[in-house]
Structure formats: C-alpha cells, structure tokens
Amino acid sequence: MAIAENINKIEEEIQKTCDKTGRKRGEITLMGVSKFEPVEKLEQAFNAGIHCFGESRVKEAAEKLADFKENHPEARIHLIGSLQRNKAKQAALFFDCIQSVDREELVAELEKHSCLRNEPLSVLFELHTGEESKSGFAVNNDADFNTLFKTVELVLNCEKLKPAGVMTMAPYTTDTSLIRASFRQLVKARKELEKRFPKIENGGSWEVLSMGMSNDYKIAIEEGSTLLRVGSAIFKE
Ligand SMILES: *Cc1c(COP(=O)(O)O)cnc(C)c1O
Hints:
Strand 1, helix 2 (39-47) and strand 2 form a beta-alpha-beta unit. With 237 residues, this protein is of the alpha/beta class. The protein has helices at residues 2-21, 39-47, 58-64, 66-71, 88-94, 105-114, 142-156, 176-196, 217-222, 232-235, and strands at 29-33, 52-55, 76-79, 97-101, 121-128, 137-138, 161-167, 208-210, 227-230. Helix 5 packs across helix 6 (105-114). Strands 1, 2, 3, 4, 5, 6, 7, 8 and 9 form a nine-stranded parallel sheet that branches. The protein is 44% helix and 18% strand. It binds pyridoxal-5'-phosphate. The site of pyridoxal-5'-phosphate has 14 residues, from strand 9 and helix 10.
C-alpha cells in the first residue's frame, strides 16, 4: 500500500506545516495529480482519502476516468495541463474545474460548450510567476493586469462559467527564495483581482490559490495555498 503510506506521510507534513503557521488543515485541499497513472492507482488514492484529482490531457483523462467518475460522484477532476481550443468541448463537459485558463480565446470556446452542463464550470486563471513555465497570464505591470482583467470580465459574462481563483507553477529550483517569490506574486495578483472584482454574481469567488507541488508544497502552505497539486510524492515509490 505504497500510495496510502505516501499520503499518510504527506498528511503529516501538511499538518505540521499548518500547526507551524497557524493555518487550519480544513482550508487546504490535497489534490492527487494522476496524469499518466492507471485508474487502479487513483482507486487506491481515493480509498486513502484523496477526492480531488488533476489530469493534464483532456482526451486521455476522459477515456481513463469515465467509469471512475460514475462510480465516485463525489470525486472532483480538474484539468491542470494546457488546453487546446479543439479540446475545449470535451474539457468543458468532462472536468469539474479548468485550472489552466491562460489566454482570452479559451473563454469563448469554454462558454460555447459549457451550456450543456448542469452546474457552471469552475475556472482558475493560470498566472505566470516564474521563469520555468511558459504559460499563464503575466502579472508584472498595469498592461498585464489589464489583459487579465479583460479575460476575467469575459468569464463573468458567461452564465455557465465561474471564476474560482488562480493557479501557478513555481520555478523548479532548489532556491527556495525564488519559489517563495513566485507564490507571493500569485497571492498579490489575487489581491488585485479581489479589489477589481469584489463581488461575483453566480457563486464564483477568488478563494482558490492553487500552488504547491511535490517539491514545494510546504512552502506553498506557508504562503497561503488552498490547493496542493501533488503527483510524484503520492504516486511514486
Ligand atoms: C505534473 C504537475 C503537477 C504535479 O507535479 P509533481 O512534481 O509530480 O508533484 C502539478 N501541477 C501541474 C500543473 C503539473 O503539470
């Protein structure tokens, strides 16, 4: 039961970091990043308490997890990988949340197809806060923010889309100060979004701060993360 053991270890670390920083465990979701993993491993993780999963590819996830989703209606499945326009329909129908909204043109595509959903589709805006990743909205200056705000406005005008927060990937480095700086930039950008869009009509919010992976989730908790995207530390030996 390597996966259950891995999860127990991570849970201990999360609790320790919460205690150290005065945070509550209940305000943080531990996502299992299950891209490339067979469904048997997701079952193991589910039985060990993971109810939120992240996948990076639309078609693969929809095929792999069709039965899993039906058998576990309480499981939430998020898209965390970059989304191509021609996959927007399948993505809008399959996922509970798209974490990787990283450009304006995706919004119209997602809206077009989400009309077939019962519940609105949650979206996170992916922000570019470190050199490592190429995707995400830049948030360095007023012009950057204007581009982001314009895209948020488009989402707010969509009946079947709702903002849930922001997501980022920190640079992959052993230099923790760079990782921390990246997470702080996400927190700061969320403050700007809250200031600009304080009230969201259809149940949307800026609550989710999706940051922290296997190598940096403790730092992410210290910096305020509410959603940890952990893959290898859960699923690998
Ligand atoms: C793969 C991936 C993760 C998980 O990475 P690990 O280092 O395996 O924990 C998290 N977020 C995104 C966007 C990913 O693509």
